[in-house]
Amino acid sequence: MTAEKDQFRPADHPNDHFLMTTVVGSYPKPKWHNRARDLYEDPDADFDEEAWQEAKDDAARLITSEHERAGIDVVVDGEMRRNEMVEFFAHRIDGYEFNGPVKVWGHNYFNKPSVVDEVAYGDSWLVDEYEFTASVADRPVKVPITGPYTLASWSFNEVYEDEETLAYELADLVNEEIEKLVDAGARYIQIDEPALATTPDDHAIVKACLDRIVAGIDEDVRIGLHVCYGDYSRIYPEMLEFPVDELDLELANGDFEQVDVFKDPTFTKDLAFGVIDAHDAEVESVEEVKANIKKGLEIVPPEQLVVSPDCGLKLLPREVAFEKTQTLATAARELEAELDRGTVDPVSLRAD
Amino acid sequence: MTEFVATTLGLLPLPDWAKRDLEDLKGHQKHDLVDGNESEAVRAVYAEAREELLEAQADADIDVLVEGQLRWDDMLVHPLAVHDAVETHGIVRYYDNNNFYREPVVTGELTFDGDMAADLETATEYTDDLGAVIPGPYTLADLATDEYYGDEDAFLEALAAFLADEIKAFPDVETVLIAAPSLATAPPAAPERVADAIDTVVDATDAETILYPYWDALDAETYAAVADSDVDTLGFDLVSAWDQHVENVQSGPAPERVALGIVDGQNTRTESPAEIRETATDFFEETGIDPAVAYLMPNTGTFYLPTNRFVDKLDALGATSARPEATQ
């Protein structure tokens, strides 16, 4: 492992142990921000591009700071500038077009884009977002990017022979974007591949995508992979072959039933362990979250553990998202202190 | 000389205005989905959307029109999801799609319901060329959970009997298409029992019956069993598993009437009428069959598509039947 999490340890970190805390990405948008979008999209409203830009900047500033106030070590802007995880990128990649909403379930729709021409790198995707967030943050900033396999799976493909070919083409574009982000100063990138959970047999395609994504990227740049809501036994231990520093997994929602999957063979990556349920509005107690983190310590030693929610928190009420995030940070700090004092023994946790 | 007949199967995509109106009227959560007791306002939106889609099919020169199954929030399990003897549980994935439905759990006797017949009845006001689309008994058994009938055979038989009763209440329709994806994606252990269940269903109607498995080809045993059943027309999803279909037809009985899923219901790329006909004739040539009738259709429901591409594909399909062609 080369991109150690210790590079993100705050100078004033209170404990010897460092269970780095971070989040997956999305966060509830302030109501005024949604209203601002409605106004921006209403041709009759007096709300221009400049006003919308100001609203996005204000929201990004606010939510970045909200993560810092919650005590998170590596922060994000809560994806305040993004509408949806595929749409946002498809709008920026040449070769895509939009034809209208399609059903996901019930009356939940998604503007599924079509690839109608060869995909190419057009406008920068996230450099402005990163530079702004980094300029307003006092903590290190992580950049979540939707991965090429998910971008390919959740699009109509009118051009390429198959989805795999499209995914590889998109992986090259993600690589180009990461190069630009790294040039702008980014040190921590998270690739989001939720589609892998729905088609776990494609793990070799995801690995080949990741090989392309990290090609030529400085080894000090930390690359994480987030996969959520699936049967991990179908992609573990194959995931250990992925060229990433960290695997970010959702485990709280399934009551940690899948923890044993990762015990054999030994987990050799850093583990960003989901300890907060993103789909339950009840805020966990600090004690509960500490117990959850200990389940992560059954898999890896503290040096390899990162503490994170299951997934983006955007579907929760904002005050609930804040309290959950704060609880996560508090629980991690308390557990670090217990590890320092020796009242929690990671070796015996792993041995159990 | 094969007669080409253009048709489609559900679910059709709701018009965008209806998506917006129903979002406001129904909400986004699982308890907001159609349960058979919708408000008048919700029913009115569906009625208007149904009429609009029947007009769109007629405008596109589709020969056998469908009601569209617009109310089927839970896709093919809808007839169970709205039934009084069925509870709906959590949201589960629909095949390998990025779509979800409520898991139906059968907790009592599946008595006559009439939900499908009522929607078909409203559609007969707009067309005389109506085709019904129903889920197959095995597909329902595969997607649902049984907590009442106790064993697999009894459950399958009960589902077949339930569907037969529902069909008997249908208005006059030209065709009854049995949508049967699970037959292909999760091959049955006892194909002959499935064929019996299909007989129960098709014997309940005088209309032409079409068995349409999709997302894969049937395995050889299942193909042989259903080809031997009372169903009039066998369907082939030619988007999904060309080679296996060819093998099945070459080694099994040659069907005299076929339904071909040629237009990709899950991709926005629009096929031309010439391409659709060519795919059909290529299939005839490769398998050596010369069917009397070939229904040309999308390979799946088209609710996966945005509205504009759905209309483009309808137009392409409709244009294929205008010029029937010889297969030689």
Description:
The complex is a heterodimer of chains A (352) and B (328). Helices cover 38% and strands 15% of the residues of chain A. Chain A has helices spanning 31-41, 49-70, 87-90, 127-136, 148-153, 163-183, 195-198, 203-214, 286-297, 318-341, 346-351; strands at 20-21, 93-98, 102-105, 108-110, 113-121, 143-146, 156-157, 188-192, 222-227, 246-249, 270-274, 305-308. Chain A has a 7-stranded parallel sheet with strand order 1-12-11-10-9-8-6. In chain A, strands 2-5-7 form a 3-stranded mixed sheet. Chain B has a single domain (3-327), classed as TIM Barrel (Alpha-Beta Barrel), CATH 3.20.20. Helix content of chain B is 41%, strand content 17%. In chain B, the strands form 2 sheets. In chain B, strands 1-11-10-9-8-7-5-2 form an 8-stranded parallel sheet. A 3-stranded mixed sheet of chain B has the order 3-4-6, covered by helices on one side. In chain B, helix 11 links the parallel strand 10 and strand 11. The interface between A and B is medium-sized, with 22 and 32 residues.
Total beta-strand segments of chain A: 12
Characterize the overall form of chain B.
globular
- CA radius of gyration of chain B: 19 Å
Sheet having the most strands of chain A: 7 strands, parallel
Q: If helices are DSSP runs of H or I spanning 4 or more residues, what is the number of helices of chain A?
A: 11
Gross morphology of chain A: globular
What's the total number of strands of chain B? Answer: 11
What percent of residues of chain B adopt helix (DSSP H or I)?
Answer: 40-55%
